[in-house]
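tokens incoming
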């Protein structure tokens, strides 16, 4: 799981979004950075990154 957390934080950092933020804006930024990423997957990854 740590690989996914680092991966998610990297994309959020590149998008200028704090990793601790679990808002819809953060999910949207991750999905825009990673085309093809599903909504449920993005929510799970953002939540996981914020918890760790």
């Amino acid at each position: 799981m740590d690989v996914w957390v680092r991966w998610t934080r990297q994309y959020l950092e590149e998008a200028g979004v704090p990793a601790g933020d679990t808002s819809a804006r953060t999910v949207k930024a991750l999905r825009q950075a990673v085309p093809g990423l599903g909504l449920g997957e993005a929510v799970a990854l953002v939540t996981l990154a914020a918890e760790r």
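note: The chain has a mean pLDDT of 92.
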